[in-house]
């Protein structure tokens, strides 16, 4: 398959980037009128450099002026190789250095040094000039890079650098064009008769004409109606290619630079990132805890703050710091993405680094958090999955792909291992999380039983409700069922209790309660209000509701109309007696006589029979049902 590469041009203002691009590609990237007038490249200029059956190469001419560093960051994201232009007559200048550092932050590994304007230096001095420049480049990505000596005006050295570029590109690993498609938008415009077009470098994956796409972070659905690569129609655009995508059904106002075009929901929309940060070696001020920053990531530029967990400030020490970025707006990112932080004003590079976890959380200040972040940073696929599961307890495959930035097959390979299991269709967790949830549920049952020994256990809905903030509901359902099957607890209707538990009166009250039940039983069917017996037995108010519930639930007493509570034994005897002395049905008068009850007691008693479906009332008579 054809490979696609983008080459970036970096270097100090006026060091010949645009001229070199022009002689290499025959395209004048300084194409805007304003640029022509001011002789400064304002917009990023892209031009095709080379194409054969195996590869297609384009150049992005990155402007050199300090003010335009933001554009350089947007352009460099997605670049395979950087050509650093250094004018022979000036050598390495301050802005060259800033570019070098930014390239380092952006993780650019391959470079070529183009020493331009060699016609401006005596030939005898050239090797000296070259030596000096290479000395300045020590420690940067260009330290061991091939060097070309050029005169862009006469074309001297141009064929050498073209060959160097192709040779270097040949040594690069192919970009992943198989994964989900992502294109950070850097330009949005309307084309007459076509509608909205966005342009950017395809970061990963590929896109086909007609494909359904999503614009993040606003989740707007759209379609790639047409594709263009370097102003020529194309059926498909691949990672590394600069592409223009004509989108259907979208107004220009709905999209802006910094938005990201994706093919699936595999990407995180986030405002809080765990990152590895290195400060700039030129940083001349202290960056304090929660300092406002401007974060450049992909093509987005968002204000935010740095949050440290093991210090309150950083200087120019350049060491790696694990910290967090809290942004004011949502961005789209995944693990491994590079970013640059700048001071909002005066504009100055603070540092840069890469995203460890795109979905950061609130953590405590202290070494424990740093240890966790270090683990996350080092994490192999399995550790990353475990760490995401530990935070969320259970996740779908889609969520795991987002959280870990692994691809689908990597996620599935890890989930196939025995430490993981599916608790609901498509949702996974780890065995030890199941154990933790089991323990937590068990502890809750024990606590509940201690607090309410007279209740049959904890109501399922209540238990799920109480734990739903910490665990997904379907995971709780799964663990409740599994614990029941394994005998960790038992279920009685809607109630769960530990396996050996049965509701009981607390030992210190059992004697009095027993006496009270005897007293109620002794009174037969003509009882006083339950409260009177409680009073007589010296049962405190606080216990009465629980006890009443217990008596009914355990069927020690049968409540009539909520006022009287009969001993269950006496109630059953009365039902048996009535049944034995009547035929299929009976009238109130007959029941009164048989049971020797006054109207005050017989009516609630018979209504109880109806409500228990022992009898059925039909006008004046009651028919036995069972
Ligand atoms: N003599 C000589 N002049 C050159 C050479 N390359 C570029 N120039 C001149 O240097 C000036 C700046 O060149 P550009 O190519 O625009 O430089 P640039 O780095 O793209 O500048 P910015 O885009 O503004 O950062 C122009 O006047 C060019 O004609 C060269 O090899 N020899």
TrEMBL record:
Keyword annotations: Cytoplasm, Elongation factor, GTP-binding, Nucleotide-binding, Protein biosynthesis
Pfam families referenced in this protein's UniProt entry, alphabetically: Beta-barrel_SelB, GTP_EFTU, GTP_EFTU_D2, WHD_3rd_SelB
Signal peptide, first to last residue: none
Coarse class of the protein's main subcellular location: cytoplasm
Superkingdom, taxonomy of origin: Bacteria
The keyword Heme appears for this protein: no
Tr-type G domain residues: 2-175
InterPro entries in the cross-refs: Beta-barrel_SelB, EF-Tu_GTPase, EFTu-like_2, P-loop_NTPase, SelB_WHD4, Small_GTP-bd, T_Tr_GTP-bd_dom, Transl_B-barrel_sf
Subcellular location: Cytoplasm
Cellular compartments per GO CC: cytosol
Key word Cytoplasm present: yes
Gene Ontology biological process: selenocysteine incorporation
Function: Translation factor necessary for the incorporation of selenocysteine into proteins. It probably replaces EF-Tu for the insertion of selenocysteine directed by the UGA codon. SelB binds GTP and GDP.
Name of the featured protein: Selenocysteine-specific elongation factor
Taxonomic path: Bacteria, Bacillati, Bacillota, Bacilli, Bacillales
């Amino acid at each position: 398959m054809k490979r696609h590469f983008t080459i970036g041009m970096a270097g100090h203002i006026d060091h010949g980037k645009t001229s070199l691009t022009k002689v290499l590609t025959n395209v004048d990237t300084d194409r805007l009128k304003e640029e022509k007038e001011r002789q400064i490249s304002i917009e990023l200029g892209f031009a095709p450099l080379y194409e054969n059956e195996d590869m297609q190469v384009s150049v992005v001419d990155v402007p050199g002026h300090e003010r335009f560093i933001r554009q350089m960051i947007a352009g460099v994201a997605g670049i395979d190789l950087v050509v650093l232009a250094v004018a022979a007559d000036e050598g390495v200048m301050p802005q060259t250095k800033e570019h070098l550092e930014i390239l380092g932050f952006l993780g650019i590994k391959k470079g070529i040094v183009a020493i331009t304007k060699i016609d401006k230096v005596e030939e005898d001095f050239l090797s000296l000039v070259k030596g000096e420049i290479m000395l300045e480049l020590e420690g940067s990505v260009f330290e061991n890079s091939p060097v070309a000596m050029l005169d862009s005006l006469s074309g001297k050295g141009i064929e050498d650098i073209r060959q160097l570029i192709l040779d270097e590109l040949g040594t690069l690993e192919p970009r992943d064009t198989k994964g989900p498609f992502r294109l950070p938008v850097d330009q949005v415009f309307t084309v007459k008769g076509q509608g909205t077009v966005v342009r950017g470098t395809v970061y990963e994956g590929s896109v086909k004409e007609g494909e359904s796409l999503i614009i993040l972070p606003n989740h707007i659905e759209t379609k790639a109606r047409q594709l263009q690569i370097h102003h020529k129609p194309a059926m498909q655009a691949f990672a590394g290619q600069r592409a223009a995508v004509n989108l259907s059904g979208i107004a220009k106002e709905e999209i802006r630079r910094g938005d990201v075009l994706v093919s699936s929901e595999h990407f995180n929309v986030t405002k809080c990132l765990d990152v590895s940060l290195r400060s700039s070696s030129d940083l001349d001020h202290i960056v304090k805890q929660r300092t406002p920053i401007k974060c450049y990531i992909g093509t987005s530029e968002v204000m935010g703050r740095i949050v440290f967990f093991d210090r309150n400030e950083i200087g120019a020490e350049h060491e790696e710091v694990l910290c967090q970025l809290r942004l004011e707006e949502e961005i789209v990112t995944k693990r491994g993405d590079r970013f640059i932080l700048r001071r909002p004003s005066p504009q100055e590079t603070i540092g840069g680094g890469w995203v460890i976890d795109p979905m950061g959380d609130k953590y405590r200040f202290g070494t424990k958090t740093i240890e966790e972040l270090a683990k996350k940073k080092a994490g192999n696929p399995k550790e990353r999955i475990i760490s995401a599961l530990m935070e969320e307890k259970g996740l779908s495959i889609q969520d795991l792909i987002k959280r870990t930035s692994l691809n689908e097959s990597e996620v599935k390979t890890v989930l196939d291992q025995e430490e993981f299991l599916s608790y609901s269709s498509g949702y996974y967790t780890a065995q030890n999380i199941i154990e933790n949830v089991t323990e937590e549920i068990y502890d809750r049952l024990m606590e509940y039983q201690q607090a309410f020994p007279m209740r049959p256990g904890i109501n399922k809905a209540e238990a799920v409700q109480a734990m739903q903030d910490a665990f997904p509901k379907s995971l709780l359902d799964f663990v409740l069922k599994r614990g029941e099957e394994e005998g960790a607890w038992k279920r009685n209707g809607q109630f769960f209790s530990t396996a050996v538990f049965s509701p009981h009166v607390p030992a210190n009250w059992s004697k009095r309660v027993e006496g009270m039940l005897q007293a109620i039983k002794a009174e037969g069917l003509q009882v006083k209000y339950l409260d009177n017996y409680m009073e007589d037995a010296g049962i405190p108010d606080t216990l009465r509701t629980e006890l009443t519930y217990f008596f009914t639930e355990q069927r020690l007493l049968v409540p009539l109309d909520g006022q009287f509570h009969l001993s269950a034994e006496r109630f059953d005897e009365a039902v048996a007696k009535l049944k034995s002395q009547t035929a299929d049905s009976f009238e109130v008068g007959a029941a009164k006589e048989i049971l020797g009850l006054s109207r005050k007691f017989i009516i609630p008693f018979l209504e109880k029979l109806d409500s228990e479906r022992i009898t059925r009332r039909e006008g004046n008579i009651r028919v036995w049902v069972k």
